User: Which sequence fits this backbone?
């Protein structure tokens, strides 16, 4: 069928073909968006773990220098809990003006994978691959997620 010069617009078939092409392209974008969101969460998890491990290392450094007095010898310089990193510890002589409270974290961060502020903990006395915290001190933190990362490893192994 020939169109007249005065008729404008698309036929019904042309519109269906265009919509089908758009739907195929949109359906291809959904998995890419999901993968991208997972990649962002993994990056946030790496940063969060690094920040908490740095806070634990700073606590250990101050304890080794004698600035933090620990009552329990079993702690070997590591913080008793994550809450102690948030609440802070008194550094210096409490009778002098030099005394101050030193905080290592503003708050316990949320795990970007589980979306909870709960972390797996390991103490210095625990076995490295232990799944239960001995409770003596906090030597390391890990995610409680049992999901796999994009690289095939489990998040709790990070």
Assistant:
């Amino acid at each position: 069928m020939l169109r007249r010069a005065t008729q404008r617009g698309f036929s019904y078939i042309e519109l269906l073909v265009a919509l089908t092409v758009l739907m195929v392209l949109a359906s291809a974008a959904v998995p890419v968006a999901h993968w991208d969101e997972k990649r962002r969460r993994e990056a946030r998890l790496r940063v969060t773990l690094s920040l908490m491990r740095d806070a634990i290392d700073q606590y250990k450094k101050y304890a080794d220098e004698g600035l933090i007095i620990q009552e329990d010898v079993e702690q070997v310089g590591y913080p008793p809990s994550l809450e102690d990193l948030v609440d802070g510890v008194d550094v210096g002589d409490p009778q002098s003006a030099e005394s101050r409270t030193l905080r290592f974290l503003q708050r316990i961060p949320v795990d970007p994978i589980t979306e909870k502020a709960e972390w797996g903990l390991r103490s210095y006395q625990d076995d490295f691959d232990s799944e239960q915290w001995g409770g003596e001190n906090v030597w390391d933190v890990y995610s409680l997620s049992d999901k796999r990362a994009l690289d095939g490893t489990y998040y709790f192994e990070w």
About this structure: The CA atoms of residues 122 and 132 lie 7 Å apart.
